[in-house]
């Protein structure tokens, strides 16, 4: 390090003299969390989801796959969120917790048979489209949890309850939400 830069950093307190190299103390202490991409909570691909009626769920999941593949992979998330905003605008009433859970489970069951990636983004987006086809709304959430940094997408009902999600979902802070506004007939 150039001596002039070292002197400036010492002057402003960004550099501290030490007699020997030593590790820095952690700025924040927290309980370690095992990394998970949904497979620990949902055991993806290991446990077959319960049987549900799935023609609508299969159609919704297929629509999400088509939306993601319709253009550049760099703009796939933009296309998905645009479709979710359009779907949310057609909803007339909020989905009940039972309706939202049934939709998520139906999509999960359809995803079991899918030959392509079906993870939280695809499942949650397809659940929104499935419910919107019945003019029912939920809030789609895309959130982040820290240490280690993880991303997750899920749907929740009007009261903020995640639909068919494990308790670990509460560790995520929504960074983007779509929906939750209801139009009157």
C-alpha-based Rg, rounded? 22 Å
**Overall number of strands:** 5
Describe the strand arrangement of the main beta sheet, using strand numbers.
4-3-5
Order of helices and strands: HHHHEHHEEEE
The description of the largest β-sheet is:
3 strands, antiparallel
- Low-pLDDT residue intervals, each spanning 5 or more residues: none
Helix content: 25-40%
C-alpha termini separation: 68 Å
Question: Helical segment tally?
Answer: 6
Estimate what percentage of residues fall within beta strands: 5-15%
Shape: elongated
Q: What would you call the structural class?
A: alpha+beta
> Which whole number gives the mean pLDDT?
84
Describe the structure.
The protein is an alpha+beta fold and 185 residues long. It starts with a helix and ends in a 6-residue tail after the last strand. The mean pLDDT is 84. The strands form 2 sheets. It has a 3-stranded antiparallel beta sheet with strand order 4-3-5. Strands 1-2 form a two-stranded parallel sheet. Helix 3 crosses helix 5 (97-112) and helix 5 (97-112) packs across helix 6. It contains 6 helices and 5 strands, in the order H-H-H-H-E-H-H-E-E-E-E. The protein has helices spanning 3-12, 39-42, 55-69, 76-88, 97-112, 120-132, and strands at 93-94, 136-137, 139-145, 150-156, 173-179.
